[in-house]
Amino acid sequence: MAPGSRCLLLLLLGILGAPALGNPGPLEDVVIDRYYIPKICLREAQMGDFIRYHYNGTFKDGKKFDSSYDRGATVAGVVGVGRLITGMDRGLQGMCVNERRHLIVPPHLGYGSIGVAGLIPPDATLYFDVVMLDIWNKNDKLQITTVSKPERCNRTVENSDFVRYHYNGTLLDGTPFDSSYSKGSTYDTYVGTGWLIKGMDQGLLGMCAGEKRSIIIPPFLAYGEKGYGTVIPPQASLVFSVLLVDFHNPKDGVFLEHLEVPEPCKRRAVTGDFVRYHYNGTLMDGTLFDSSYSRNQTYNTYIGKGYIIPGMDQGLQGVCVGEQRRVVVPPHLAYGENGAGDKIPGSAVLIFDVHVIDFHNPADPVEIETVFRPEGCNITTRDRDFVRYHYNCSLLDGTRLFSSHDYEKPQEVTLGANKVIEGLNSGLLDMCVGERRVLIIPPHLGHGESGARGVPGSAVLRFEVELISMEEGVPEGYLFIWHGEPPANLYEQMDLNKDGGIPADEFSTFIKTQVAEGKGRLMPSSDPEKVIADMFQNQDRNQDGKITPEELKLKSDEDQEKIHEEL
């Protein structure tokens, strides 16, 4: 209130009623003292408006004749249409909600020369202390103010949607009557189906998840003449401060957003595939409820088989290795009305930001891509061959695991001897020296569900291999094979000093001579001396340090007797 206006009213009061100037005569009009005016006044009471207010009524000597406070109920009525005494009709016009006024009503604008029997004497001047609580008009509409709105809003609330929102509810004067926050849970309901007051049904339409609104609802779109219990008086306008947490429609399916799809994508996941992926799971308001990253471990599962919520079963269909995808899952395809634990509320929409690390099918073979194959390649690797090769091993997301280049020499292995994972063994077959390949090895041909040191469980592995050299192998169970028929007098030829016993040095010299002359070959190995020593130990059956004629036997003969692996 401007200082000049207050001075003018006080001057008027002084002129009309100050004892120092004597009694100038009866008041001609109501005297108004606006002793409190709120800083924000969105509207002023006009003729024909519905209003609610509290008051104390007294005589000049301070004696109370009436009070809405004493009755415990506000006064509601229409201002300026003759339903109130004239002085009140005039004194209430122009008031703001929460404004306080002192009114002095002369008799002719009050109850006149008749008064009110037993309550107000004739020709009484009335003093009212009034606070305005509510103003509305039958022509009012819903008042919606957007307080904040997220930058991204792909969808807004429509009729028949199911919404979850927080709210603070107050009367127009700021008196709180209800709050979802105090209950510790959102208010969950359908929109446009009559489950809400009309004003809220209308006020929630068009909202985005995460949006905040102030909604002012006139009584005829709220609880009207009856009010609600003891907290909402009759004819009360309601103010709701609303935060929309999430919403969905019972007809919704899974919504997919492809944030990053690698190129090329040679294969997409289908039902029955086993997928390893990282994810962050959030509610629609951004609240994180779970994350595989926090556990530093991927989530591993089959898709399309019911091992995960239906929405994720659907949402992971068609993913590529390395793809980043957002999967929005409505509650009926997630955890439904009951939610899960203390982090996923009932009827919550879930958002999964997924990064697919790899996937495979239990029926997958090794995938072989030849990067380079020398011309004129006639000799290729077979089982039992001894090979030297270089390799780089990584996960499909590019995470480097191992490399032979970190060591001084290539990797060495006898193929088919169960010394490397099955998938790598298969990928090294039918290679030429100098050939380079990329091998994609599914876990059932790799390190399986348990993984290995440095290799996660159920991981698909990528090998870059280059064959450096190869040596022709020997059949399984053999340490040495003849290129032709063995000598008929084998023992005599092996017993170099003809003393009737073959010690280790004579045995070694004989075998090395056979290899050097091309008459036979040893099982390929990086340590041929050890191979010869193993052969001698197998033939020296009584372990006395020499082989006798009775002890020496060919492998072909041993196979029939099922005794030892030997020559």
Automatic annotation (TrEMBL):
Keywords: Calcium, Endoplasmic reticulum, Glycoprotein, Isomerase, Metal-binding, Repeat, Rotamase, Signal
InterPro entries in the record: EF-hand-dom_pair (IPR011992), EF_Hand_1_Ca_BS (IPR018247), EF_hand_dom (IPR002048), FKBP-like_isomerase (IPR051989), PPIase_dom_sf (IPR046357), PPIase_FKBP_dom (IPR001179)
Reaction(s) the record says it catalyses: [protein]-peptidylproline (omega=180) = [protein]-peptidylproline (omega=0)
Localization per record: Endoplasmic reticulum
Gene3D superfamilies on file: 3.10.50.40, EF-hand
Signal peptide per UniProt: 1-22
Region (Disordered): 534-567
The EF-hand domain, residue ranges: 489-517, 527-562
UniProt feature, compositional bias: Basic and acidic residues: 541-567
Pfam families: EF-hand_5, FKBP_C
Main location, first listed in the record: endoplasmic reticulum
GO cellular component, one term: endoplasmic reticulum
Enzyme class: isomerase
Molecular functions (GO terms): calcium ion binding; peptidyl-prolyl cis-trans isomerase activity
SUPFAM superfamilies, alphabetized: EF-hand (SSF47473), FKBP-like (SSF54534)
Record-listed E.C. numbers: 5.2.1.8
Key word Signal present: yes
Function: PPIases accelerate the folding of proteins during protein synthesis.
PANTHER family: PEPTIDYL-PROLYL CIS-TRANS ISOMERASE FKBP10, PEPTIDYLPROLYL ISOMERASE
Protein name: peptidylprolyl isomerase
Organism annotation: Tachuris rubrigastra
